[in-house]
Amino acid sequence: AQKITQTQPGMFVQEKEAVTLDCTYDTSDPSYGLFWYKQPSSGEMIFLIYQGSYDQQNATEGRYSLNFQKARKSANLVISASQLGDSAMYFCAMREKAGNTPLVFGKGTRLSVIA
Amino acid sequence: DAMVIQNPRYQVTQFGKPVTLSCSQTLNHNVMYWYQQKSSQAPKLLFHYYDKDFNNEADTPDNFQSRRPNTSFCFLDIRSPGLGDAAMYLCATSSELSTNSPLHFGNGTRLTVT
């Protein structure tokens, strides 16, 4: 069963606008971590933001925020004031505590920022 | 800056010819990972080391091996590359295996098999 689902293969956003990238996850482990990574065309994976399953507040890092809705098992990434340099693939990922499981990635969303 | 470095950036090998990809880190992290990422797909974990303990994913082909001679270095050996092994190979590290330890990735090595 797929643990991370990203339903948007591609998204477009106007420069300076905000955009939300969707991510839902599936786990029965009460302890887990959720991560978002950015992968530009050059290939490197850049860590953006982290949300723990027990965190009470939504995570924020600069222009990135995570809309964490635990009951719905969703962890959407919000990018505010989009910039041309935000154009990239974005991956949602999860790590469960049980068995020291590795980081599992979703299929990604390709974001294109339009001037 | 502390970082994860992969060499080479691009690697071309012939069908069936063994190839080794290398990864080094200055973060002094306990865990090192190798991921395979094919075009337009998510990264797929091949194996990881926690210190010297090797952990192979169940569906990683025997063709793929790894070595970690010390904390800083980790190698990916592909014994007999096939055309289907052409991919981006990403090395990553984390301080621990805990749920709140982000992975830090290198720039990747793009492997072409001719």
In short:
The complex is a heterodimer of chains A (115) and B (114). Chain A is built from no helices and twelve strands. With 115 residues, chain A is mainly beta.
Write structural notes for this entry.
The complex is a heterodimer of chains A (115) and B (114). With 115 residues, chain A is mainly β. Chain A contains no helices and twelve strands. In chain A, strands 2, 5, 6, 10, 11 and 12 form a six-stranded mixed sheet that branches. A four-stranded antiparallel sheet of chain A has the order 3-9-8-7, with no helix packed on it. A two-stranded antiparallel sheet of chain A has the order 1-4. Chain A starts with a strand and ends with a strand. By secondary structure, chain B is mainly beta. Chain B has no helices and eleven strands. Chain B has strands spanning 4-7, 10-13, 19-25, 31-37, 44-50, 53-56, 64-67, 73-78, 87-94, 104-105, 109-113. In chain B, the strands form two sheets. In chain B, strands 2, 4, 5, 6, 9, 10 and 11 form a seven-stranded mixed sheet that branches. The model of chain B has no long low-confidence stretch (mean pLDDT 93). The interface between A and B is medium-sized, with 26 and 24 residues.
